[in-house]
Amino acid sequence: MKQVEDGVTLFSEEESNVIKALKSIARNQQVKTKIQGSEELYPLLKRAAKRFIAGEIKEDGIIKGRELLNKGYAISLEYIGENTDTVEECECAKERFMDLMESLGEASMPSTISLDLSHIGLSVHSDIALKNLIELAAKAKKSSLYIMISMEESNKTDRIIEIYKKVSREYDNVGLTLQAHLNRSEDDILDLLHYPGKIRLVKGAYQEPPNLAITRSDELNHRYLQFAELLIKKNHPTSIATHDESIIQELKKRGHLNQDNVELEMLYGVRADFMKRLKDGNYKTRVYLTYGTEWYLYLCHRLAEYPPNIYVALTDMITPHNGNQSLY
Ligand code: FDA
């Protein structure tokens, strides 16, 4: 890994190749099925996943979420899953989210619910995702909860934005994630400023063709800053969803992080030390916490975006770690 002068971390050519390979492995259904069916590999990888997920059941998410709330963080909770391919399974996923909201309501836990539209219908038909999202948004509204739609691969971007727009006209408690690495995102931001939902700005986790997106680079960091500034200057509700210290320090320096509707959001298990410093410095911080058994793709992304995590994962497989809670 090489460190350039202004503090931006860039990856060497070899590391970039590892990143590409991990991102392709992540999308390979055969590899996933093989690992999930393996009595040796599955428990080992589960140990590595534990660093990044709350656990495999809803109660794990609720318990860890409650602890983070008590420490002064806001939370996003996600029942992990994507690319559900039957109507019945989409219905089942929607019901799991309904049940999660019920439990959060009973426990009086304010939370954002994060979800992939392909988890609740997009891979079967857009209309199913739309119908399920409307039901979830209505339930969330009643329980004073917020829904945040994740952004998936670029071949789904148009459909995800279209569904968001339809739901957003009726429900102001639904937001959308946009990826700075996509070349189209500036136009999308300008368009979506006319909708009320929060925009969660991320760099982008998926491997995309070079004509559609740029990779991790100074250029991407500058673009991220430009988009963040665009949203914040328009006073649009914004989640700065990155672990990139150089970006956060720059936004801090420009005085953009003190605005009421701007928050910093990071993934559970990633840069907990930094998140704590920001929370202790009175910045609005939100931890994104996932649970469920479908953690395979999620783990692959965490390893791909920061290859040194491969060593951490190997260590966790040998000596299970005790969780991240004490770091927050
Ligand atoms: P970058 O990858 O450049 O990393 C910057 C620095 O942060 C690294 O040098 C390292 O110090 C630290 N870091 C980053 N990742 C790390 C890791 N896994 N482990 C340890 N340190 C790490 N993507 C997407 O395509 N669709 C989506 O809907 C979402 N949703 C989402 C929500 C939230 C709350 C977050 C924080 C992120 C996402 N992402 C996402 C993932 C996002 O696109 C991106 O892949 C990761 O955030 C990593 O990129 P960074 O912005 O952190 O920068």
Characterise the protein shown here:
The chain is built from 13 helices and ten strands. Helix 7 (157-168) links the parallel strand 5 and strand 6. Helix 1 (13-27) packs antiparallel against helix 12. 42% of the residues are buried. The two termini are 26 Å apart. It has helices at residues 13-27, 29-37, 41-49, 58-70, 87-106, 126-142, 157-168, 185-192, 218-233, 245-253, 272-280, 296-305, 309-318, and strands at 2-3, 9-10, 74-79, 112-115, 146-149, 174-179, 199-202, 238-241, 262-267, 285-291. The strands form two sheets. The chain has an eight-stranded parallel barrel with strand order 3-4-5-6-7-8-9-10, surrounded by seven helices. A two-stranded antiparallel ribbon has the order 1-2. With 328 residues, it is of the alpha/beta class. It is globular, with a radius of gyration of 19 Å. Dihydroflavine-adenine dinucleotide binds at residues 9, 150-151, 177, 179, 200, 202-206, 216, 241-244, 265-267, 270-271, 288, 302, 305-306, 309.
What are the defining features of this structure?
single chain, 328 residues, alpha/beta, 8-stranded parallel beta barrel, 48% helix, disordered N terminus
The geometry reads as globular
Q: Which secondary-structure class do the elements indicate?
A: alpha/beta
Residue share in helix: 40-55%
How far the N terminus sits from the C terminus, by CA atoms, comes to: 26 Å
Rg of Cα set: 19 Å
Q: Identify low-pLDDT runs.
A: 2-8
The largest β sheet comes out as: 8 strands, parallel, barrel
Q: How much β-strand is present in the residues?
A: 5-15%
- Give the overall pLDDT as a whole number: 93
Strand order of the largest sheet: 3-4-5-6-7-8-9-10
Series of secondary-structure elements, N-terminal to C-terminal: EEHHHHEHEHEHEHEHEHEHEHH
Number of helices: 13
**Strand count:** 10
Hetero groups:
dihydroflavine-adenine dinucleotide
